[in-house]
Amino acid sequence: MKVNREFKLTTFRTGILICLLFLLNSCKEVNADLSFGPPSGLNDRVILIEEFTGIRCVQCPPGAEELDNLQTLYPENIVVVSLHTGFFATPEPGKSMFDFRTADGNALEMILGAPDNGWPSAIINRKKFEGATSLHSSRTSWAGYIAQELENEALFGLTVNTTWDPGTRALRADVNAIARDNVAGPLRITLLITESGIVDYQKDIRYGEVPEYVHKHVLRDVISNSVEGDVVVTGSVTAGQSIDYAVNYTLPAEWKSEKCEVVAFISDGNSRYIYQAGHAKVE
Q1: The whole model's pTM is what?
Q2: Domains plus CATH for the chain?
Q3: 60-73 and 139-150 helices, crossing angle to 10°
């Protein structure tokens, strides 16, 4: 159930924004030793990784582990969404309890393209990197592409806040994006829900069949009006302008709210390139 999406555009004083950016930058922790934490000099850029996976894909568990390692390396800079699409996502009769495929996941595959280099595959910020044939990339490229994206400062600050009523399972998600530079529109904001900690069947090239595999970041639903996100700015924004967007949603009873997250991102309405992402737990 998807209702009451709201957004508005306001202007902040430039002086306040500059002070805020100074405070954020002055609080960065510098640690040059990779063995003790993430690389030094990271900004607050948050990258979206759309992982294309499936329960019949024997190479997908090692791919998921690679994403786990990258999230450990960049704990504040990566958000993962796992899309179960195509043949490899077809449930195994008599073994699978759940079907992780969704209409929205299938629609996104149609829009972004199916993996052209095999499964698992990932799309990083919906960017086609130099030398690539599509938006998709294989496991050996993920770390390098992420590092490239993290070299760029975020053009938006983005926060996600949730309000949760366990009695009615009513969820409200509020997103605020503040432009840090002049950015041409149109701009879209997309909201979706993922769920982790789902135990079910999975094939694995190393172990064969894994009946109790723990699935993470599973796309449950895109809760924007459009699977591509809602247009919140048709023209351009200038540094300091703020965009507010909200969605009210009823969480289905079969989803474990404590394992669900709201993922949000702001993107170019034409190229689909993602400027900034964010996430928050449902409860």
Answers
A1: 0.87
A2: 2-23+45-281 (2.60.40.10)
A3: 20
